[in-house]
Amino acid sequence: MSTAQISLSRIRKVFSMGDVQVEALGGISLTICSGEFVAIMGSSGSGKSTLMNILGCLDTPTSGSYHFEGVQVEDLNRKQLADLRNTKIGFVFQGFNLLPRTTALENVELPLLYDRHRKNSDPRKSSIAALERVGLGNRLNHEPSQLSGGQQQRVAIARALVTQPSLIFADEPTGNLDSHTTLEVLDLFQKLNRAGLTLIMVTHEPEVAQYASRLVQLRDGQLLKDEAVCTPRDAATDLAENYCRGAA
User: How far apart are CA 81 and CA 60, in angstroms?
Assistant: First the structure.
């Protein structure tokens, strides 16, 4: 049986807007095991971004308990939270967030500059390996303006992988991509997941969520649905079909 990597118990998040209290999350309990590929869905205002920020240790809940790999997150101080994010978690965002006049290799090396414990003895070698893992070994010295949108997202994924995290959060990772490039990114995610990496992807697109193996849906800060996807779509198969149709 897989180990519980994330365990949330009755997580609430309340924002104060003047005299008004807005409850973004209303007591969410959720367990995610190592090696899962989870899609978190919900319309605007559902609480999915708030949940992602709490799961990624970017924000703290108003109440409730959050355990990450057995560690009680709410007991960690700011420095400990930063260490957890930098060593255990990788982030991929819709907007890529690459430094513009910096090569792909330098963008990927960036997280290793914040490794206070200097665990990585050869940052450049690790960064090259991460770029090769996402199929960009021949684009090391290209700046973002010289890369397609899909290639830029692959650089962002390599940057998330370079610290060898056990979990990657992807926040609308295909939102700026066309349908074919979306499939390429989803194919990469599925390959990383099959290699043992836990993936949590926030998306508002049902057609993207069906490539995950589990669907968590929120509405008005409540857990509306949590179910396994019996037969997730295979991005590699869909890519091959696209090529066949294009060649016909």
Answer: 10
Partners of 9 in the beta sheet? 65
CATH superfamily to which 4-247 belongs:
P-loop containing nucleotide triphosphate hydrolases (3.40.50.300)
N-to-C CA span, the chain: 45
Helix (H, G, I), strand (E, B) or coil at 23: strand
Residues 128-178: tens digit of each pLDDT = 999 999 999 999 999 999 999 999 999 999 999 999 999 999 999 998 899
Please report which helix (H) or strand (E) contains residue 49, including its range.
Answer: helix 48-55
pLDDT in tens, 47-62: 999 999 999 999 999 9
Query: Are 89 and 5 contacting, i.e. CB atoms less than 8 angstroms apart?
Result: no
Assess contact for 39 and 213: CB atoms under 8 A: no
Burial class (CB in 10 A: 0-12, 13-18, 19+), 202: buried
Reference 232, options 48, 34, 38; nearest CA is 38
Considering Cα of 184, then 49, then 70, then 10, what sign does the dihedral take?
A: negative
Half-sphere exposure for 178 (CA within 13 Å, toward CB): 6
The SS3 of residue 21 is strand
How many beta carbons lie within 10 A of that of residue 91, not counting itself?
20
